[in-house]
Amino acid sequence: MYHIPVLLTESVDGLDIKPNGTYVDVTLGGGGHSREILNRLNGTGHLYSFDQDEDAEKNWQTSTNATHLKNFTFIRSNFRYLRNWMRYYGVEKIDGLLADLGVSSHHFDDETRGFSFRFDAPLDMRMNKRAGITAADIINKYEEEKLANVLYLYGEFKNSRKIASAIVKERREKEIKTTMDLINATNIKDKKDLARLFQALRIEVNQEMEALKDMLTDATQLLSKNGRLSIITYHSLEDRMVKNIIKRGNIEGTVIEDIYGKVETPLRALSNKVITPNSEEIQQNPRSRSAKLRIGIKQ
Predict the structure, then answer these.
(1) Interacting residues of 267 by C-beta distance below 8 A, sequence separation 6+
(2) How does pLDDT run across 119-171, given as a tens digit for each residue?
(3) Element (H or E) spanning 296, and its range?
(4) pTM here?
(5) What backbone phi and psi angles, to 5 degrees, belong to 77?
(6) Are strands 292-298 and 267-269 parallel, antiparallel or unpaired?
């Protein structure tokens, strides 16, 4: 299976879908969330789904019932360009947006993409194989301090300087080209630490934090009154940004008050309690373990 959708019912229910509404799924992936949204739309509703990976597009084309395509538009692009694409299609307002910010199972299971430490593969990690720097570029070309910062910020390694130093020392001897080259250079054995290492590089390769900031800002402006954001996150950096945009109306979490001291925010949280997978879902799909769903409503 290309990808098992996480919190499928909860995230789509959170959109409170109007059958004739306009919705956006900015992370098509395996298409599970998009299919569920389409199932709840009538002939006048429309769904726009984004994915920058050609594999996702091919999977959608080969696995989806063509009868849905009349009210569906696929956009092969990074979701950071959300507002530009909506303008291109003449969409001024949307009724809801869903994002599952996790990496598709397909990417981890594809031995050629370099997303997983389970396989010896080229250090690529690009979601969009057509452009951008690779993980190998970062490992071999970043200055030691910059590399340490990436590992600290996105992998939360307290010993990021030590790891960066080991990488730089190794690359002086020979170029680090594959996942196994990287593992050997860092001498990291623990699987959780390896997952954090690969996560940090993937985030940097794909500029995920910058893209998420742009998308959330655009989404807040595009939502119609009572429109909804339904966002699934997997690590603290993502979750903090989503929490801030819903609670404060900005990524930084800055409190903005009007002249009367009332906090101004364009959104409100559906619930102060984060939604997480139940034990049954975690058992069926262990990768869902760290998932958190937050839902915001445009005021």
Answers:
(1) 220, 223, 229, 245, 246, 247, 249, 296, 297, 298, 299
(2) 999 999 998 888 789 999 999 999 999 999 999 999 999 999 999 999 999 99
(3) strand 292-298
(4) 0.90
(5) -165, 160
(6) antiparallel
